[in-house]
UniProtKB/TrEMBL annotation:
Gene3D superfamilies: 3.90.1010.10. Residues 1-122 form the NIF system FeS cluster assembly NifU N-terminal domain. This is Iron-sulfur cluster assembly scaffold protein. GO terms for biological process: iron-sulfur cluster assembly. GO terms for molecular function: iron ion binding; iron-sulfur cluster binding. Pfam families: NifU_N (PF01592).
Amino acid sequence: MYTKKTLKHFNNPKNYGKIKDPDGIGKVGNIICGDVMWLYIKVKKDKITDIKFETFGCVAAIATSSEITELAKGKTLTDALRLGKDDIIGALGGLPPVKIHCSVLAIDALAEAIFDYLTKNKLPVSEDLIKRHEVIQKHKEVIEEKYHDWTEMEEEMHEGSNG
């Protein structure tokens, strides 16, 4: 059962869409449940000034994507990286146990967007963020190798909706 706040975020997501010329992009997915998230950030003076998402997924995937944008907007990159799944779950008033992975995907998408921003701008990246990125990339490689046709189709659909 979903909380009222989770359903509110699902029915009326905050910050949904794509940012033109984002400073960082995070893309994550989970082939088992089929959720795919893109998270876009704009950064000015080390703060997330704008953040949007596009998610193909269930109620929890969309709600957690919406909530992470609300939690991260206006935060410094360091503070945004401190956000965890428990922050999202708490802000939503809980999630069914089988949907906890959606909050992890949202956190991973944010981490990947920040990693993308830092590396594109040749800024220092913490060891923790590098390790996190490597784990996310390993999972992504396994998914893409095992489900090549699915991931290729999903990328084409995403590009088609934005082109």
